[in-house]
Structures are given as C-alpha cells and as structure tokens.
Amino acid sequence: MHKLILITGASRGIGAATALLAASQGYSVIVNYKSQKDKAIHLTEQIRNCGGNAWTIQADISCPEQVIHMFNEIDSLGILKALVNNAGVVDLQTSFVDVKPERLQRIFNTNVIGAMLCAQQAIRRMSTRHGGTGGSIINVSSSSVITGSPNVYVDYAASKGALDVFTRGLAKEVAQEGIRVNAVRPGFISTDIHADTGNTERFNNADKIIPLGRCGNTEEIAEAILWLISEKASYCAGSFLNLTGGL
Q: Which domain of life is it from (predicted)?
C-alpha cells in the first residue's frame, strides 16, 4: 500500500511546493483542490513525470460532506500517514469595523472548521486507538497570529490564532495515539495569495522591514513541513516553527 500524504489547497503556493518535496521523499501525494483543477492536474503530472505517485481530489474542506467523501476516496489508495492542513482563504485589506459577517464566516469556515474536519477524519485513520499505525498532522498557520495584522486582516489573523490553539490542544490529546500535531507560521512568503488582499505593496517593500532582507519562498516552508513530518522531528508535538525571516 502507498504511504500517503494529503495536502489541502495544494494546487498552488506552499501546498504545491510541499507536494513536490513530499513526492521527492517517497510519499504518494493526494493533491486536494477546491476550484483550480487545471493547476492541480498539472502538479500531479509533474510528480508522475518524475517517477512519483500523485492523485487529485476535489473537495471544499469547509463542507463536511465533501471532506468525508474525500477521505473515503483516500482509503482506496493507501495508508494515510500525514495531513498538511494548508488550505486557507484571506480577503481584501480593510479595517475590522468594515468586515461583513459573510466574510467572517467564509474565513473561519475554511481556515478553522475545515482544518478541524480534515484532522478529525485523519485521526480516525491514523490513531493507534482506532487501529491505525500513527502519523503526523501539520497545520499551516501564519505570523499574523503574533502581530494581529491591524488594519490589514484582523479576521484572518484571528482564524489562524484559533488554529494555533487547536494545534496545541489536539497535539496533547492524540500524542499517545501515535500522532504528532505541529504547525508552521510563515511570514512574508512569495505566493499568489497576496493578490487576494488587494495590496501587494507590503510585500514589495519587505526587504526594508525583514531582518534577512527578503521574502521567503514556498520551498523553504515546504522543507520545514517535511522536517516536522519526518522522524527527525520525532520529539516535536504541539510545536510551532516561526518562518518569518527574523521578524
């Protein structure tokens, strides 16, 4: 049976970089996507052309029924050993007083509830208490939990703060069931998601405010994620890696 890793929101950015690196390290990769089918298919073809195994599965992780369907599909492909909760959404830069309820619901439904739903299904397959052989869950958080992102996206930062609390609590809950739960907190990383905020100037000027003098790249975040999954991080549980260039 294949040793599987599920990466949510893997069609671009950090998710895509993690998928490529995981495949190079011997994982069979489940590329989850919500709407960017062409990019997801292209990514799986890249992996297969390099001799790896990869499949695409469409699912909106904010929908419980779709999450269940996705994991049922995964069961036919192999043994799930790792989950990377990477899928996340942001919105236009704005003051919090102007944020509409629909935006709050959309951000929390994906960034928090979606990650929880995926973790729940993964635990049922990985946990030694449920007959599994153990595994690893990595939550992709954000350095915004440290700054709070005032006048930018306080709601997004709050959703990632909730994800951090979930990471810490879940790590303690399932540690003795063979599952390690950890998180990464990327800072200024060069990805397409910044266009969703409507303000790319913050990132164009990153060299002036980041001690290392540049934005990070997706491959650097992927390396951290795969390290946390690996046996090299066997004593890491409930830990957070701040990948911020020194901020």
A: Bacteria
Contact 149, 156 (CB under 8 A): yes
In the chain, what are the domain boundaries?
A: 2-243
For the four alpha carbons of 228, 233, 239 and 241, in that order, the dihedral sign comes to negative
Encode pLDDT of 136-194 as tens digits. 999 999 999 999 999 989 999 999 999 999 999 999 999 999 999 999 999 988 876 65
- Nearest one of 244, 245, 226, 247 to 236, comparing CA atoms: 226
pLDDT digits (tens, 9 = 90+) for 48-106: 999 999 999 999 999 999 999 999 999 999 999 999 999 999 988 899 999 999 999 99
Say which CATH class 2-243 falls into: alpha beta
Please identify every residue annotated as catalytic. Answer: 156
Q: Which residues contact 12 (CB under 8 A, 6 or more apart)?
A: 36, 39, 191, 192, 193
